[in-house]
Amino acid sequence: MNMMSRSAGKPDRNVRERVTFHRSELNQILQVYGRMVAAGEWKDYGISHLRDAAVFCVFRSATEIPLYRIEKRPGAQARQGMYSVVALDGRVLRRGPDLAGVLRVFERKPIRLVRG
């Protein structure tokens, strides 16, 4: 469907564009994805561009439901930030206005031995 009105040459206000990830956002997400694939934890991904959100789903294998969803929802920018990481069970693990900050949820903390 053409987004331009033929008569006026202006965008049709009734047609809403889909939310997409920008190249810089995808680069950040794919860096984390590549690291987790190399660690053997993630195996596949899928991307959906919807009217109100862009969603990057992470899978352990191609036949499972997503382990995590990395979501971009511009409508939530003013409230809680447009980026979020949602776990398999629907819990929001991290939310905020900065994608890099939200993706830090996947960073591993070093294990420390505690002597008692």
3D architecture notes:
By secondary structure, the protein is α+β, with helices and mostly antiparallel strands. It has one domain. It has two helices and five strands; from the N terminus they run αβββββα. The protein has helices at residues 23-38, 99-103, and strands at 44-49, 54-59, 68-72, 83-87, 92-96. Strands 1-2-3-4-5 form a five-stranded antiparallel β-sheet. A hairpin with an 8-residue loop joins strand 2 and strand 3 (68-72). It is globular, with a radius of gyration of 18 Å.
Order of helices and strands: HEEEEEH
Instruction: Sum up the overall morphology in one term.
Output: globular
Count the beta strands. Answer: 5
Largest sheet: 5 strands, antiparallel
**Strand arrangement, major sheet:** 1-2-3-4-5
Q: Strand content of the residues, in percent?
A: 15-25%
Main structural class = alpha+beta
- Percent range of helical residues: 10-25%
Low-confidence stretches: 1-8
Give the count of helical stretches. 2
Q: What gap, in angstroms, lies between the N and C termini?
A: 68 Å
Number of domains: 1
- Gyration radius (Cα, Å) is 18 Å
Overall pLDDT score: 83
